[in-house]
Structure formats: C-alpha cells, structure tokens
Amino acid sequence: MSSPLAAMLRALAVTMALLVAGQASAHEGHDHGAPPPPISKTIAPRGEAVSEAFELVAIPRDGTLQLYLDRFTTGEPIIGATLEVDTPEGPKTARPTAARSYELPAPWLSKPGHYDVLVTVTAGDTVDVLPISLTIPNPGAVPVAAAPVGAAQAVSDTVRAAVPVVTHSIQERLARQDPVLLTVAAGSFLLGLLMMLALRGRRRVPAIAVLAVTATLLLSASAFAHGGEDHDEKPVQGAALIQPSQPGGATTDLAQRLPDGSVFVPKPTQRLLELRTAMTAAGTFQRSVGLPGRVIPNPNASGVVQSSVGGRLSPPPSGQFPRLGSPVKKGDVLAYVTQPVQRVDVSDMRQRQGELDQQITIVQRRVERFSKLVTSGVVSQVQLDEAQAELQGLKDRRAALDKLRNEPEPLIAPVSGVVAEAAAVAGQMANAGQMVFQIVDPTNLWVEGLSFDALTAGQRATARLPDGRTFNLTYQGSGLADRNQALPVQFAIDGDASGLRVGQFLTVLASTDSQLSGLALPRSAVVRTSNGQDVVYEHTTAERYEARQVRIEPLDGSRVLIAAGIDAGKRVVVQGAELLDQVR
Fold first, then answer.
1. How far is residue 180 from each of residues 14, 175, 212, 219, 222, measured CA to CA in Å?
2. For residue 170, is pLDDT > 70?
3. Which of 54, 386, 395, 433 is the most buried (most CB within 10 A)?
4. Alpha-carbon separation of residue 162 from 106, 156, 178, 222, 394 (angstroms)
5. What's the gap between Cα 318 and its chain centre?
6. Residue 253 — left, alpha, or beta (φ > 0 → left; ψ -120 to 50 → alpha)?
7. Percent helix, strand, coil in the chain (nearest 5)?
C-alpha cells in the first residue's frame, strides 16, 4: 500500500477514535437511563440502648438532649425516674417534662462528631447503666466526586463504553429528525467518497479536503454529543445518596412506613398512640370451639303474663299500662281483661237472676215471720236459723252471678323484674293464651348455644360480643333432641350482665378435652389486613415495628392462640395494633 493511502487510513482511524472519545467525554457524568433519586422524609439523628428492664432513646434537638425511657417488656413510659448522664461537660441530671420524657441541656451537641454518653437510670429499686452513641453529621460534608478517566486508557475500552450511549442518542434523534444528525451523515458520506476516489485513481487526495472533512465531523460530533442538554444547571453530586438531617434543619420525625415494609414510629408518637407490647411465651392450652349463641332469660327468674280467657284489655288501677323497661314486682296488677258475654248467655243470666230474686223475696218473708213467732215459742230457733242461712245462700249466688258478668280478670306479674315485652293497648281484644307481657330479671340471664360436638359438664366457656366484651359462662346442661342438626347447650352468665338484652347474638367459645401448643396473645394484637391475612406487629427496635403473618386459633373470649408465624420471646404489640397498621 502506498504511503499516502496508508497515511490517509491512519488519519481516518484517528478521526473515528476522536469522534467516539468525544462522544464518551461529552456524556461523562450524565446517566440518561437512571431515574431521579427518590425523595425521603428526614429523620433526626438519634441513639438507643436497651436492657432487660429499660429501653432508652436519645434525640438531640435545638441544643437539648431529649430522653425517652420505657419499660422494655411492655413499652410503658416510665415517669419519676432519675437519669444521670455522663456528658463531655461532666455528669448531669435530666429533668422530667410534661410529655412523659426527660430533657437535658446539651450545647456540646451543636458541633458535628461522634459522642458516647452513659446514662444511669434509677427507677424504684432498679438501677441500670445504658450506653448511647450519637453521631451528629456535618452540614457542610460533600461526597467525593469520581476520579476522571486516565489518559492511558485504551481506545477500545472507550469505544466499548460509549457505544450504548451513542446508539441511544442516535435512535432519539432519528425519531425527531435532528438536523445535527443530518450534518454528521453528510460529512460521513463525503469522507467515504474521498476515500473511494483515492483508492480508484491512486491519486493523492488534497490534504485540505481531508482536513475540511475531519473538522466538519469533529464539530458535528461535538454538537451531537451536547445537543439538547442544559449546561447551565449545577452538576449532580452524590445523587444516589440521601444526606442525613442536621440538628438545626427541618426534620419531620413522623411515623412512616419504610421501603422494607416496617413501620418507624418515634417515641412521641408511641406515647400519643398508647402503644403497648407483651413478650410472647409458648404454652399448652385446651382447644376451644366457637358456637353461635344468643342471650335467653333464666327460666327461673322470668315469666310471661297471659290471658286465661279472651276479652278486652283495660289499664290497671294506676290508669296506665307498664311501659317497656319499667320495673315491676311480683303480684302487681298489670292489666285487666273483661270477658265479653254473648246475647244468649245474657238472656240466661237475666232469667237466672230473676229466679234468684224471687226466691230471695220468699225466704226473706219467711225469716221475718219466724222472727216474730220465735218469741212466743210457736217457731223454734232452729227453724229461724235455717231460714236465715237459706236467705244468705241465695244472696251469695245472686252476687256471684253479677260478679261473673261484670268483674274483669286481672293480669298479675308472676316474678319481679323489668318489662321486656309488652303488647297491651286499651280496648284491644286479647285471645285466650296470648302473651301480653314478658318479665325478665336483667341480672340473671342465660346463654344458649348450638353445638355440633358433645360437650361435657364442667367445661369452662366464654361469651364474646361483637364489640369485644366478654363474659364468663357456667355450664347448665345440654339437650338430647337435635335443633337444626345441632345440640342446644345452655350456660349461665357469671358476674355482671348489664348491657345484655334477650335475643342478642354472640359467640360462645367452649373448651374441649383436646390440647394445642402455641403462643397466647390478646385478640387486640391480631390485625386483619386488606388481603385477609392475619398479622401481628413485632417490636424489633425502640422505634421500629415489623409485621409478621401468623396463623391463629380461637382460645377464649379475650385471647387467641398463635399457631405459627412468630417465635417465643418476641415483643408483640397488644394495644394500638390497629392504629399502627394505618401508618403509611
């Protein structure tokens, strides 16, 4: 190959290398495919320490050191303790605040750096020493920029690194028909034409032509590499890093759900939500079965008021029927039932009354005559007494006939209690055997459940209402006849039964003879998520909670059995778990 042609080829290689290098250097420091870094809420610097008895969190804020002391097992704030802090300025005692925390003036925390302090806690008879490490970041710290590419790096490595960037830029500019790209294409075509002429004609191509084409391509490459970019904006320094918040900066310190799914809850928010925890412990418990049940009146402390004969209802002597919920005593008259008399019966009664009136008149005259003759001895005293007795009997029969016709039947309360049901209206016709009033003793109620398993006497049971209230039950007996393919089982409510009403539905949790192993937790510790999964929140660190999916079994009215999902010896939120689940 002739020396002019070889020189031209070498010039072309150098030109292409410069073009690619220009592309790579122009895009150095720009990531066109990476998304912008996410914006995160800032959290103030803090330190924490735990022991078997205490949990301590220290937060520097506005020249003071805020100290939050809680029970390690329950998470309950400790009030009235003594906190002695070993600071760089010497030992000092923190003072309590109204927010159930402690504070200590700490001007030395205004300087960035790392501080190790010792806090001696005295709460009652318990004394403990807790070390805490605090790191105050430097507000002027700037992350170190990446070193530039060395001059001795091979051209092949530069080309290999720049090819994806160039390809992506060309695709974008072809889509919008960039004029710069057209210029580069025209220059490349002209360079190729000159090379073809040089090879065919074996003639020296003027140096000015090669220099012109090279200059055109270099300028076009520079414009192509920087086209559409704003070089006035500030360079990005550490874009993938999130600077920690500064002591004097704006910190949110709000409860928030972290990207890994855990929940960050600062100590002030924990006090606001009244979060409480309990330590899980394994045990063996009797298996419980849930029965549908309802509240029924105690048959020995309740009663119904019915009419024995059909008739018309009328108010009692007080003039008003007893209203619902009003207390009544045994023997009180609640209403009257006046029996209607048919026309045929009225005619017979009137005829009988006439006959009795006639007999009464005759006997009355006989008694008067015997009374006059008994003094003279014509009539004996015995005859006079018999006539008087006969007269009195006729009068009694006459009075009973009038009473049967006019006197209504009183409806009397059979037991003491309150009126649970009333169906009395003045003038209403009541049929024979119709219930007019139901009287129940609200302090003596039973619960009836339907069981598909045979329950033995002596087994304990618990009733649970939809609002979470529970009642202890005492087994009374079960039936032998099926009711809806189940056996009715009756229990007596122990203790105060206020607030219950007859017919109210509830769930009966009755223990069986079989046993289960697991962790017993209050029902308030289990939260059902939107996808139907049961979870509990484990207190992993002082201000961090993590959700654990669990499998539960019914245990009693106030507790559930955790069969799987969490181990023993973990701190689990038992109060405020529903509020914790709402944190986003």
1. 22, 13, 17, 10, 10
2. no
3. 54
4. 54, 10, 20, 14, 134
5. 52
6. left
7. 30, 35, 40
- Per residue, the 3-state secondary structure of 420-456, as one string, reads EEECCCCCCEECCCCEEEEEECCCCEEEEEEECCCCC
| Three-class DSSP category at 547 | strand
Residues 109, 247: Cα–Cα separation, whole Å: 9
CA dihedral 222, 225, 230, 234 (to 10 degrees): -90
Taking 60 as the threshold, does the pLDDT of residue 231 lie above it?
A: no
Digit-coded pLDDT (tens) for 81-91: 888 888 888 88
CA-atom Rg of the chain in angstroms: 50
Q: Phi and psi (nearest 5°) for 512? A: -120, -175
Q: Provide the 8-state DSSP code for 109.
A: G
**Sequence-separated contacts (24+) of 468-473 with Cβ below 8 Å:** 468/523, 468/524, 469/499, 470/556, 470/557, 470/558, 471/447, 471/495, 471/497, 471/500, 471/557, 473/447, 473/508
CB 78 within 8 A of CB 119: no
Cα–chain-centroid distance for residue 77? Answer: 23
> What pLDDT does residue 163 have?
46
Task: Give the sign of the dihedral formed by CA 478, CA 482, CA 483, CA 484.
Answer: positive
Say how many C-beta atoms besides its own lie within 10 A of residue 464's C-beta.
20
List Cβ neighbours of 523 (8 Å cut-off, separation of 6 or more): 468, 558, 559, 560
**Interval 399-429: pLDDT, tens:** 877 666 667 788 888 888 889 888 888 878 8
pLDDT given for residue 564 in this prediction: 86
Answer for the pair 473, 509: CB distance below 8 angstroms, yes or no.
no
Report whether pLDDT(47) > 80: yes
Tell me how crowded residue 504 is: count the other CB atoms within 10 A of its CB: 16
**Both structure tokens of 288:** 């419980």
Dist. CA 496–CA 471, nearest whole Å: 8
Instruction: Look at residue 525 and tell me whether its pLDDT is greater than 70.
Output: yes
CA distances from 367 to 199, 212, 359, 371, 382 (A): 172, 165, 12, 6, 12
Question: Mean pLDDT score of the chain, rounded to an integer?
Answer: 74
Helices (H), 148-301: 155-176, 179-201, 207-226, 267-273
Confidence (pLDDT) at 162: 45
Separation between Cα atoms, residue 149 and residue 147, nearest integer Å: 7
Please report, for the chain, how many H helices and E strands are present, in that order.
8, 32
Q: Do residues 338 and 408 lie in contact, with contact meaning Cβ atoms separated by under 8 Å? A: yes
Give me the pLDDT at residue 228, please.
45
pLDDT at 19 over 50: no
pLDDT at 537: 92
What's CA 453's distance to the chain center, in Å?
32
Give the pLDDT confidence score for residue 64 in this predicted structure. Answer: 87
Q: What one-character DSSP code corresponds to residue 72?
A: T
Selected residue with higher pLDDT from 573 and 154: 573
What number of residues does the chain have?
584
